Amino acid sequence: MSHEPFPTDGTTVVTCGLPYANGDLHVGHLRGYVAADAYNRALGKLGQETAYVCGSDMHGTPIAVNAAEAGVSPESFALEYHEQYQETFPEFGVEFDNYGHTDDATNTELTRDIVRTLEDEGYVYEKEIMVAFDPEEGQALPDRFVEGTCPYCGERARGDECDEGCGRHLEPGEIEAPESTVTGNPAEYRERTHRFFRVSELQAYLQGFIDRLEGTENAKNQPREWIEGELRDWCITRDMDWGVDYPGEAGEGEDGLVLYVWVDAPIEYIASTRQYSERVGADTYDWEEVWTDDDGEIVHVIGRDIIQHHTVFWPAMLHAAGYTEPRAVAATGFITINGKGLSTSRNRAIWAREYLDEGFHPDLLRYYLTTNGGLQQDVDFSWDKFQSRVNSELVGALGNFAYRSLLFAQRNYGGTPDTDVSEAVADRIDEALAAFRAAVNDYSVRAVGEAALDLARFGNEYIQREEPWNLVDEAPERAEQVIRDCVQLSVALAVLFEPIAPDTAERLYDQVGADGDVHAVTLDAAHDAPAAEFGEPDELVTKIEDDRVETLNEKLAERIAESASDEESEPTDDTETMDLEPITDDRVSFDTFQDLDLRVGRIETAEPIEGADKLVRLEVDIGVETRQVVAGIRQLHEVDDLPGTRVVLVANLEKSELFGVESNGMLLAAGEEADLLTTHADSPPGTKIR
């Protein structure tokens, strides 16, 4: 890849983490797919040759477990969801150039070829390991067929991941006190021969790769814990019969092994690109220029829970097999619902089909998901916040400006006034185009949307200030100039807003009678002259009324309550499904508590610590002095929003050093979400807490 600013001379592919064919889509899923779609469209606006590909992840133990419970084959179980995804994504304007799945022939053959290459290059070896086994059922227990205790943090964990604790990837045989999820009985460990990928031999390469990698900060920093520490080899086979058979010398699937799902899943990115190329022809788009040439530009958009797979295992596999490394990995944050963690088991989710059935336009959700916070930040969805942003920004800013401008132009001039755009407005459009280009190169989908909305706000201020309705009789030439400018601004808005809200942009582009396809034009089209004549416009976005939001909130609360009452094991309140820690029986004396010097503080400055995914360096005013404090809150709080926040600080804690930065105190926070403790009233910095 070039690492030159986009657009480059190379060919780009944008991918999104494969949806696991195991359940219905909700807004948490849609955030990544919409963001990747918007980014791919934005690249096209720069004139970059690009394609957006993806596919359903069909393999792995969760699908095998759920298929068995449903009494169907894993293949038919996964295909049903795959077909559902194929139908649902286009309804939200998510337009893949190719959408395949990991069980199709292209991916299966390509996966086997790549694994054979890894073997030929000496990167695969055999090793005897202990694997969990269910003696009652007489079967091996790979990955999520076994649960137990994480050997690193002691929390409850699945066989392949400590999902409730430290989040570490777990290799077969690591989990302690294993239990079979098939029978619920204790499992036992038995010796078995498996294949391992020599990731450890690629440590030097990976250290260079992570320094070159572009994308979001969490994707660039989080993997350093593995890459710069002890990098262990990776078990790439599993004891099960659902997946891509291991390509052994004795034939496919020798020894009854299949490849681990995280081998064949990312290879679908290549397979899907290849299928697209074969369909349109290499002259139109050549998959090999992306995946095997130095000029290939590969951009992955993923959820932050799979950063390790995409920045450690995947680039190591690509490099060892002779493929192009990714240029960028952009990792999204999670979605919460009404400030609480999304819980599909409790039906605390906004389902994709539910949203569409309510009759809302997909572009409204696209806008909310792509511009509500930075890509790597968590986003909270609530119907109230959704209404507020739609009404104030899409209706009040964009829709209001376009409708009033074009309606005035049509009724007074039959379309576009016969004059040139003013230099000031042309310059302001150029500023918006520059902001758009910068946003693409910063991997900021939010800033792509803001470039358009800021231009709409400028347009509103401009038409309100100039009041052309008062100039028609008094200064007709000035009135023509103002409206000519506003019509041109509408053209520019359609071009700039297309990646975020493609259907809305298309309708606006049609209303001004612009030539060409708004989905295909580049940014230069923002300066193209609109039609001399066009019809009366329609309103682009309609206001969401309060009573509708009230009804939607009631429906959601009702559904959550019903789901909770159906599950005896669920908490009776509206807390997260995880158990609260029990209160310890050990007590401390009042004198011991008095030894803690707790002070009210105010964060003055905040900045990320280079190389540390979670840490932020803070300057905290505690009245008598300003302290430097290091806090592990970077992934849970927007760093730029922290200054001005009141906090509670342990002021007499011993100093420590984290990543070479001294920390003189400790912030207090509640729970896994690091809810910062503060005071009810505005107690001044330095106030002692008693």
From TrEMBL:
Quote the cofactor binding remark.
Binds 1 zinc ion per subunit.
Q: PROSITE patterns this protein is in? A: AA_TRNA_LIGASE_I (PS00178), TRBD (PS50886)
Q: What's its catalytic activity? A: tRNA(Met) + L-methionine + ATP = L-methionyl-tRNA(Met) + AMP + diphosphate
Query: A biological process (GO) annotation for this entry?
Result: methionyl-tRNA aminoacylation
Binding-site residues for Zn(2+), renumbered to this chain: 150, 153, 162, 166
- What top-tier enzyme class does this entry carry? ligase
What compartments host this protein?
Answer: Cytoplasm
Named cofactor requirement(s) = Zn(2+)
Q: Which residues bind ATP?
A: 344
Motif ('HIGH' region) spans which residues?
19-29
Q: Can you give the residue ranges of the TRNA-binding domain? A: 592-690
Subunit and interaction comment: Homodimer.
State the similarity comment: Belongs to the class-I aminoacyl-tRNA synthetase family. MetG type 1 subfamily.
Spell out the protein name for this chain.
Methionine--tRNA ligase
Supply the source organism's classification. Answer: Archaea, Methanobacteriati, Methanobacteriota, Stenosarchaea group, Halobacteria
